[in-house]
Amino acid sequence: MSKDTHEFEWDQGVHLKGSVLWFDAERHNVMSLVSSARVDESWRHKRAICTERTRTLLRVSRNSFQALVSPYGRRISLGPLELTLLPSGFMPGSAQLLVESDQGSTLLVNHMSFEEHPLAEKAQFVTADNLVLRVAYGRPDFSFPPFADVLELIVDRARESLLRQETPVFLCSPLGKAQEVVRCLIQAGLNVSVHRNIARFNKAYRGLGVDPGVARVFKGSPRFDEVLVYPERLRFSPAIRRLRHARLFWVSGLSCAPDALARVKVDEGIPLAGHLDHAGLLHFVEISKASRVFTVGGWALEFADHLRKKGVDAVALQKDAQLALF
I need a labelling partner for 142 at 20 to 30 A (CA). Which of 110, 130, 134, 285 fits? Predict the structure, then answer.
C-alpha cells in the first residue's frame, strides 16, 4: 500500500490516522463528524461537526449540544484536510463526508437513501479514491422494496387492523423513521398517536420546515380509531403489554432477518430501512468509483469478502484487523 493515501483505524468509530478526525465515533471525547441525528447518543459529543439541521435535532436530546456547523457543499479546513458535507437523503441534515488532501480523497457514508422523499434532502453522489461504508444490511437476503411501496404497505396494514377492531402499533426508531411512518399515516387520513419522545422530534421537524403532521401524544390508552407509533426499544414496555386487541408491526430493515423478527415477537415485520440493502451497497460502491473500500458494521466482513470476490480491493475495518491492514 502506498504511503501517499488516507489510512484508517477502528476504535469505537472510524479514525483517519494522523489526524484528529473521527466519523460517527462511539467515543464522545474526540472530534467527530456526526452524519445524522439518528446516530446513537451523538448528542453526547463535546466536539462535533455536523449540519445545522442535525444540530437542531440533537438539541432535542441535549439543549446545550454544540457543534461546528457546516452547510452542504462548503469546504471547511481541518489542518491539511478539506472537509465537505454532502446530503445522504436519509433524514433532515443527514450527511456524507468527503475528505480531501494531498493524499487523495475519501468518502465516508453511514445512512443513505437513493430514493427521494419529502422529509430529507435529495442525496448527492460523488466519486472518491477511497470509500468508508457502513454495512448494516450486507447479506444478499436483505433486499428491500421501493420506499413508496413500503409506505403503502404501512397504510394498508393500519386500515386492515382498524377494520378488525384492532389497534395497529408500528414500532420503529423514534427519530428518522417514525416521522416517515407518521406522515404516511396522516396523509392517508388516519388518526395517529405517538410516544412523547416521537412527538418532541416531530415538533423539531416542523421547526425545520419539514412537517410529518400533527399526532396526539399517547397517554396510555388509544382511541378506538387510532394508529399508534411507538419506539421499537419499548416493545416490551408495560404500556405496550397492557394494550388489548393490538396488532404489532416492527418497521425495520432487520425485520427481514427471521431470527431478529422472532426475538421482537411481533405480528409482522415491515422492511423500511435507513441503510442500503445488499444490492444498494453494491451499486453505491460502483458509482463511487473508489479504488479501495473499507466496510464497517454488522456485516462488514461478509460484504468485504463479497466485494473481493468481485475484484474490488475491500477490507472490513475492525480493531483486530488493523495490523493486517496497515
Answer: 130
